Amino acid sequence: MNTERAEALRHRMHEGADSLGNLLVEGFHYLALFAIGGVTAWAAIAEFLLILAKNHISVDDVLLLFIYLELGAMVGIYFKTNHMPVRFLIYVAITALTRLLIADISHHSEPDMGIVYITGAILLLAFANLVVRYASSRYPSVENSNMRSKLASNRGETATAPAPQPAQEVHYS
């Protein structure tokens, strides 16, 4: 009888520690997301004010503002879905490399292999984006396939996406 009580107490203690640990992790998670979102917004506003002070805008400036926009959207999507949108990271990298390419071409009149390397990196990132999009449509996350099944059953159809394996936890979209 004492062993059962001790086991029940251990189980309750374990559940309490799990709950407290989850609370602390989620609290830190939201605090960090607010900080990242705030810093991104602050940097975007500061850059926008610098652009206004210059009285002219370049393509370089517009691309930098797009980078801030994509970072802000990525934080917003992460807040709503708790999934890191990998495609947005790829978009940020493509935009940053495009910005670098434009700056390199406008400041250096002679073409060199750097241009080929940068355009090759952009092409590689575009291909990576294609792979991520294909993987997310071919192997949807468990939540996405459950939602797709619910929508299909509401319309009287059958879901067309293959059922994912239970061990599949990676979210690509």
TrEMBL record:
What superkingdom heads the lineage? Answer: Bacteria
Q: Does the keyword Cell membrane apply?
A: yes
Instruction: Describe its membrane topology.
Output: Multi-pass membrane protein
Q: Which Pfam families match?
A: PsiE (PF06146)
According to its UniProt record, where is this protein mainly located? Answer: membrane
Instruction: Report the transmembrane regions from the record.
Output: 28-50, 62-79, 85-102, 114-135
Keywords from UniProt, A to Z, are:
Cell membrane, Membrane, Transmembrane, Transmembrane helix
Show the ranges annotated as biased composition (Low complexity): 158-173
The annotated region (Disordered) lies at 150-173
Instruction: Name its cellular compartments.
Output: Cell inner membrane
Q: Which InterPro entries match?
A: P_starv_induced_PsiE (IPR009315), P_starv_induced_PsiE-like (IPR020948)
Family note: Belongs to the PsiE family.
Q: Which PANTHER family match?
A: PROTEIN PSIE (PTHR37819)
Q: What is this protein called?
A: Protein PsiE
According to its UniProt entry, this protein's organism is Pokkaliibacter plantistimulans
